[in-house]
Structures are given as structure tokens and as C-alpha cells.
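OP here, attaching both records as promised.
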Amino acid sequence: MPELDFDKTGGLIPAIAQDAETGEVLMLAYMNKASFEETLACGNAVYYSRSRKKLWKKGETSGHVQNVREIRVDCDNDTVLLKVTQIGGAACHKGYKSCFHKVVDNGEFKIVEQRVFDPEKVYK
């Protein structure tokens, strides 16, 4: 079986989470080999937190886990696409369904989604 090329990008590869039903891009995170293997083993998305420098089980604090339905790998074996079922309705730690909840409008960011949850109540 071909291996993902974690070495090419310094040990981390981009991981795109996409809603398996709608195709909406929910977020971009990073995986190392351990987080990828944990994702395969448990069936839920596990990423590598660059800020905390440790594995990050998506939803371990918020309850908004991502059940992985399918994993696709790009042509260079250095990016993964996770097709997921997003539990709890929000992938973004700021409370939105998608991390891509802003558009550029006349040179400014404009929020175009409603919050699903209040992050101050979830992340105490």
C-alpha cells in the first residue's frame, strides 16, 4: 500500500474536512503520521495541533466530532481530503458550521453564516 509523504512537508500534511453529504468545505487542519493512523483506527478525525504541538481529537472539548466516511489522497500523496459527517453542526472553533464563514467583500471580510454555538460557553 502506498504511504503518505509526510517527509516532503516537514512531517505535517494538509487535511481538508468536507461535509460528506453537501460537499461544503468545513475546515483545513494538519495531520502527522500518528494523527492519520489514529483517524484510521478510531473512525473520527484526529489532527495535529500546531499551536499545542500534540494530537487533537476533533470534538474532544466541544463534542463536535467528525465521523470520517471516506478518505481521499491527492496525486502527490501529501494532502488528504476527509469526507465527514459533522456531529453537532459546527466544525469551526469560533462556533460556525464552516471555518470558511467569511467572504471578501469590497476589500473587507464579511461574515456570511450564523453561529451554531457560543464558543465562550463551550471552551471554558
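Record two, same layout:
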Amino acid sequence: MDFLKMMTKAKQLQERMGTLQEEVAAIEVEGSAGAGLVTVTLTGKGVLKAISVDPSLLKPEEKEILEDLILAAHAEAKAKSENLLAERTQALMGEIGLPPGIKLPF
């Protein structure tokens, strides 16, 4: 691939990445822990939008368990968000014909 062609494709990718970032920000992903006792919702950019806790966990003696479940649910949702962005970025690069894994300056 010649340099000029690659730079043109990089410019296209940069423009489409802006659109992709907007789309990802609008997406919500859920993570859960404790067989669904704790659920968190994040945006595609990792912003925490909601936490749902089963009332059975709202006991003083369950405090540490609840904290651990919230952290686990958040980690699951964050991983889903990051995977979604990576998948969409790879698909976008493939659509415009750039080789997988290319590093571009954005």
C-alpha cells in the first residue's frame, strides 16, 4: 500500500472514529455479580449510569459482600464496554481496508 493511499485511509478512519465514539457513548452495557444480586449499567465510555442491589443484601453484616459484588459487576460491565469498542474499531478498520492492528496517531 503506498503512503499517500494509506494517509487517505487514515484520514477516513479518523473521521469515522469520531462517529464511532459518539455511537459507543450512547450504548449501555450491564455487568452483574452474585447471580444477579448486583447489577451495574455503564455507558460505552465507562461512565457508571445505574446500580441495582437486591434488598436481601442490605444488611449490615453483608456490607463487605455487597461492596465486593458491586466491584465485580462494575468490572464485568467495563470489560464488555472495552470489548465492544475494540470490536467496532477493528470492523471499521476492515471496512476502509486498513490492515488489522495498525497504530494511527489520533
